[in-house]
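Input record (Table S2, row 163):
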Amino acid sequence: MYAIVAVSLNFVISYKNKLPWNIPLDAEFFYSMIRGQNVIIGRKSFENIEIHPENNYYIFSKNKNYEILSNEFNNIKIFHDFQEINSIKNNKEIWICGGRQIYDEFLFSCSTLYLTIIKKFFMGDVFFDKNYENFFYLERNIFENEDIKILIFKNKRLFNISL
Ligand SMILES: NC(=O)c1ccc[n+]([C@@H]2O[C@H](COP(=O)([O-])OP(=O)(O)OC[C@H]3O[C@@H](n4cnc5c(N)ncnc54)[C@H](OP(=O)(O)O)[C@@H]3O)[C@@H](O)[C@H]2O)c1
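Output record (NAP complex):
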C-alpha cells in the first residue's frame, strides 16, 4: 500500500477544500503514480479530483445515503467503514490519496510515502501530520526544481528500521 501527498513548507495540504497551489508538474506526478490503480480517498478530496476511467475509486463517507451522481465508467465504490478496504481483492496497487482524515487512518500501514514538497508557505485549513517523520525514513529524492521536491519515504516498521 502506498501513500501520496503534496505539502507546503508549513505542511498545508488544503485551503477551503482545494489545493492552494496550481503546479502542473505536481498534478502530473500525482495522476501518473495512481494511473490504473486502486485509489483510496475521502469524500471531501474525491469531490476535487479528476476521475480517470482506468482507475478504481474507493471513497470513504460515513453518510449511508451518499451517492455518486455520475459513475459513467462504473469504477467508483463507496465505503462506510475503514475495514472495508480489506474487501479490495484485485491485483492492482492500493494508493492512499488523502485527505487528512484518510491519511490519519492508513498512512502508517503504507510501505511507501511519496511526498512532494511545494517550496512555499501557504495559508491553509488542512495540514499533513508531521508525525510521519517518526515512522518513515527518507529513501531518496527523485526530483527537484525551483518549485517542488519529490521524496520517497519508506516505512521503518515494515523495513525493519528501529523507530
Ligand atoms: N495536498 C495533497 O496532496 C492533498 C491530497 C488529498 C487531499 N487533499 C485535500 O484535502 C482536503 C480534504 O481533506 P479532509 O481531511 O478535510 O477530508 P478527506 O479526508 O478527504 O475526507 C473526509 C471525509 O471522509 C469520510 N470519513 C472520515 N472518517 C470516516 C470513517 N471512519 N468512515 C467512513 N468515512 C469516513 C467523511 O465523509 P462524509 O462527510 O461524507 O461522512 C469525511 O468527511 C481537500 O481539500 C483536498 O483537496 C490534498
